[in-house]
Amino acid sequence: MVTYTLNNKNLSQFKDRVSIPLYDRSKVKTGIVHVGIGGFHRAHQAFYTDQLLHDKSITDWGICGVALLDFDTKIYKTLKEQDGLYTLIVKELDGTLTKRIIGSIVECLYAPENPIKVIEKMASPDVKIITLTITEGGYNYNEVTGDFNFENPEIQHDLKNPKAPKTIFGYLTQALKLRKELNLKGVSIQSCDNIQGNGHVAKKMLMSYIKIAEPELVDWVENNVSFPNAMVDRITPATAQSDIVDLSESSGIDDSWPVVCEPFKQWVIEDDFVSGRPTWETVGAQFVKDVVPYEKMKLSLLNAGHSVLGILGDLFGYSTIDEAVNNPDISSFLRIYMGNEVTPILGSLEGVNLKNYKFSLIQRFGNRYIKDQIDRICSQSSAKIPIFILPTINAQIKQNGVINHAAFIIAAWAIYSVGVNEFGKALLIKDVMKTTLKQKAIASKNNPTIFLGIESVFGKLKESKIFVDAYTTSYNKILKNGIEKSVKDINSNILNEI
Ligand code: CS2
Question: Least buried of 150, 198, 256, 435, by fewest C-beta within 10 Å?
Answer without folding.
Answer: 435
